[in-house]
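Recap from last week: sequence in, structure out.
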Amino acid sequence: MARSLNFRQIEAFRALMTTGTTTASAKMLNTTQPSISRLLSQIQSTSGLRLFELSHGRLNPTPEANKLYEAVQRHFLGIEKIEQTIALIRRSGTGFLRIGATPVLGMGLLPRIIPQFRRQYEGVDLSLHTIGSRQLKDGLLNGLYDVGLTTTSLYFSGDEFETQVLDEARAVCVMSKRHELATRRRIEAADFARNTLLTLESGDDLTDAWRGILAKHNVVPVSVIETTYSATICALAEAEMGIGVVSPYATAIMADRVHASSLMPAVPVKAFLLFPRNRVKSALAVAFGQMAKGYFAATDRRLKKPPAAVPKRAPAR
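Predicted C-alpha cells:
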C-alpha cells in the first residue's frame, strides 16, 4: 500500500508545476534547489507515479502530473479561500451582516448609512430586510438579523434586547402642498377636527401618543384612515386624503412630495438600535451601530449649527 504524501512534498510539486524549474521552485518556497529535487524524488517514490521526464536538462510534467496538479490546485485554492475568510473575519467579524429595520428607517435611513459602510467594508455581504415591528422582534430573537432599527419601543422594552437610542426628534404633520394648512408652520390638535386623520395602526409609539392627545383635547377627526406604513400616510397626504402625523424620518423619503409642519403639542419620537441579548454581537454589527450613531450626530450638528454672521458693512465715507 502506497504511503501518504506530506504537505511539504505536495508544496514542492505545486511549485515546480507553477514555475517550471527546480531553481525557481526553491526561490518560491524559500529553500534550496537540492531540497526541491529531494522532495520531488520522494513524491514520485511515495505515490508510485512517474510525474516528470528529463529532457534537454528540463523536467517536463507527464499526463499523470497534470492530472495530479488539477487536484492539488483545488486543494490550495480552498486553503487560500480559508485564509481570505480568516482575514475578513479578523478585520470585520463574520463577513456577513444581516440588518432588520422597520419601514420608515429601512427606507429613510439605511440608504444614507449603507454607502459609508460599504466604503469601509467593501468585501462584506449585506442582507437588508424592511419589516414590521413584530417580525423584527421575532427575527432578532431567532437569529435572522444581527442588528435592528425601529422607531417603536413597544415590542423591545424587556430584557431580551439591548436597546440604544440613536436619535430623538419631534413628530410632524404631513399634508398635500396644496392643503389649506400648508401655509401654517404649526398644526394644533384642534385642526384635526376638520380633517381626516391619516394614521398607523395602534401599537406604534407615535400613533398611540397622538391619539391620546386628540382624546385629551376632545378632538374627533372627520374620519380616520389607518395604514401599515408611514410612507403610505405620506402618499395619502399627497393625494389630499387627509393629514397625518409621522416621524421626521418618514418625511425624508417624500420631502419633495408633501408639506410638513411642526405639531403643537410636540410629540417626541425616537430611533432605536437593537441587539438581541441571546447572541454575541459581531464586530460588523457593532461597527454598523457606530456608523448609525455617527450619522445622526452629524445631522444633529448641522441642524443646530448657528447661521454664519453677516459681516458688517463699512460705513460710507
